[in-house]
Amino acid sequence: MAALVVLLLALACTGGLYAVFAPASKAQADDTAQSLAIDEGKKLYSVGCASCHGTGGQGTTDGPSLVGVGASAVDFQVGTGRMPAQQPGAQVPKKKVIYTQAEIDQLAAYISSLGAGPAVPSKAQYGPDGADIAKGGELFRTNCAQCHNFTGKGGALTHGKYAPSLEGVDPKHIYEAMQTGPQNMPSFPDTTLSEQNKKDIIAYLNAVNGDETVSNGGLELGGLGPVSEGLFAWIFGLGALIAVAVWVAARTAKAKKS
C-alpha cells in the first residue's frame, strides 16, 4: 500500500511539473497575444478615440458607432491618417499618420472585439498575382469612374465632398475602402465585388497610374475621360469653326463690295 501511495504521489508531481514547465501550445500563445493586443488597443482607444466614438465604441453625436466595423475599417481610417480627425467637416481628408502599424493593429484588435466585421486583407488578396487588368478596367469604369474618374484622378461631389485621387494609394487601402465604404463611398462586399474583382480593379489602377504607364499618344487632358474631351471639343473645336465661318463671311462680303 505504501509503495502504491508513493507511486501515485510521484505521478502527480511529475504531471504537475510538466504542466508548469511544458511550452504552451500555439493556440494558447495566439490567444494570449490577441488578449494583450486588445488590452493595449483599448488603452490607445481611450486616449485617442473615445471622446468622439464613445467609451465602448457605441458612437456619439460627434462620431459614429464602431461596433461591427471590423479591423479593415480601422486599418484604413487610421492607416491613412484620416483618423483621429482634426475637426468635423464635409469630409475627413487624408493626412500624416500618427500611429505606428503595431499600434494600428492593436486598435484594430480592440475594435474587432466589439463586434465582427471585415478583417484586414492579406497581400494575396490585393497583390498583382493572378489579376486581370482588362477586367479590372471594365469593373472600375462600371462601378467607380462616376466618382473617381476614368483613371482614378478623383473628382468633386456635392456639398463640399469629393472622391479622392487613387494615384499612389497603397493597394491594401484601396481593397479596404472597397470592403468598408469609408465616408461617402458605398461598400462593395464580396457578394457585390468578389475578392478576384477587387484584385483586378487594383491591378488596373496600378497599370494606369504606375511609373511605367505608356501614353497612347496625343494630349491626354488629365486622363479625366469624355467630359474633359467633350468640353475641349466644344470650346476649341466649335470655337475654331465659328472663327473660320466669320473669316469666310468677312472675306465674302469684302469680295462683293470690291
UniProtKB/TrEMBL annotation:
Residues 36-115, 131-209 form the Cytochrome c domain. The keyword Transcription regulation does not apply. It is a multi-pass membrane protein. It is found in: Cell membrane. PROSITE patterns: CYTC. Residues 1-19 form the signal peptide. InterPro entries: bc1_cytC-su (IPR009152), Cyt_c-like_dom (IPR009056), Cyt_c-like_dom_sf (IPR036909), Cytochrome_c_Oxidase_Subunit (IPR050597). Keywords: Cell membrane, Electron transport, Heme, Iron, Membrane, Metal-binding, Repeat, Respiratory chain, Signal, Translocase, Transmembrane, Transmembrane helix, Transport. The chain crosses the membrane at residues 231-250. Its EC number is 7.1.1.8. It comes from the Bacteria. It catalyses: a quinol + 2 Fe(III)-[cytochrome c](out) = a quinone + 2 Fe(II)-[cytochrome c](out) + 2 H(+)(out). It is an enzyme of class 7 (translocase). The keyword Electron transport applies. The cytochrome bc1 complex is composed of a cytochrome b (QcrB), the Rieske iron-sulfur protein (QcrA) and a diheme cytochrome c (QcrC) subunit. This is Cytochrome bc1 complex cytochrome c subunit. It comes from Streptomyces coacervatus.
